Amino acid sequence: xxxxxxxxxxxxxxxxxxxxxxxxxxxxxxxxxxxxxxxxxxxxxxxxxxxxxxxxxxxxxxxxx
Length: 65
What we know:
Elements: H1 6-27, H2 34-54, H3 57-64
């Protein structure tokens, strides 16, 4: 990963943490309350923005679809 910038590493790390937390919440037996869903939604929205900023070519791929 030495070719990645610090910004890219941070973006990937934050997205991984959000995905890990979401997976843990969804794989449990307890129901997820509304506040938790709102937190997941906000965290993933922020991660998408951060990933798009760190890897702008992804926006080009999105435009092609």
